[in-house]
User: Which sequence fits this backbone?
């Protein structure tokens, strides 16, 4: 499968060359698209220089920081326009191990439409997190799964592979959420369309260089969106099923 790996970046000069080198070692035939949001530390320049040595690297320079979801939407549209068959999303800070890319893509080739690299299925792990952080993440995932009817243990995972035809059907330009909310919304919409979602175990490690982009605002946004989607869709189901007055519509 022609594979595009989308790497959103902002201020990743400490990591970008290492992650591109490791991806190329594991997946020499894949193309990596670095979507850089105007990093002032020269991330885009470093990516272009690394790509000139290894090949298979494209850089999309955007004028400012517009968010993770926007970067992935931009990258997916770029890949769809160029005929890629599989698209991968992953972080550029090495919290997602490039060595696990064949596992995700293998499940896609075996018939999955979306493959989620999961921390919460047997074999998955988060060795560096405190119990408080792990409990918050698991609670958030269980809340999303219960409210949205998702049979996914790790809907917030940002390490995943999509079949391109699914993204084309979904028309990702209409997915508006960012951060954790983007990951949940994508999984939710794909599940509602009846596509096959598979989880494979991954080990998630915290970044060792650079600063995290995750904030409390993004977490609150995600929980608010999950609540809104769940209540909205339940109301729509009741409206369609029972009519305005609860009788036949």
Assistant:
């Amino acid at each position: 499968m022609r594979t595009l790996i989308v790497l959103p970046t902002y201020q990743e000069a400490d990591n970008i060359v290492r992650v591109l080198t490791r991806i190329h070692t594991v997946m020499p035939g894949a193309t990596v698209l670095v979507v850089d949001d105007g990093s002032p530390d020269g991330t885009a320049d470093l990516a272009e220089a690394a790509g000139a040595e290894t090949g298979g690297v494209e850089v999309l320079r955007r004028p400012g920081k517009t968010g993770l979801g926007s970067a992935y939407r931009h990258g997916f549209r770029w890949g769809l326009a160029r005929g890629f068959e599989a698209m991968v999303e992953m972080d550029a800070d090495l919290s997602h191990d490039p060595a696990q890319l064949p596992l995700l893509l293998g499940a896609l080739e075996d018939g999955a439409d979306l493959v989620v690299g999961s921390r919460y299925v047997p074999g998955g792990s988060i060795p560096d997190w405190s119990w408080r952080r792990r409990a918050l993440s698991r609670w958030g995932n269980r809340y999303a799964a219960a409210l949205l009817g998702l049979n996914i243990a790790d809907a917030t995972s940002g390490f995943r592979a999509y079949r391109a035809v699914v993204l084309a059907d979904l028309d990702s330009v209409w997915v508006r959420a960012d951060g954790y909310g983007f990951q949940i919304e994508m999984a939710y919409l794909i599940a509602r369309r009846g596509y096959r979602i598979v989880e494979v175990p991954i080990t998630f490690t915290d970044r060792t260089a650079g600063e995290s982009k995750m904030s409390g605002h993004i977490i609150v946004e995600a929980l608010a969106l999950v609540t809104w989607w769940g209540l909205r869709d339940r109301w729509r189901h009741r409206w369609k099923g029972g009519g305005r007055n609860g009788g036949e519509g």
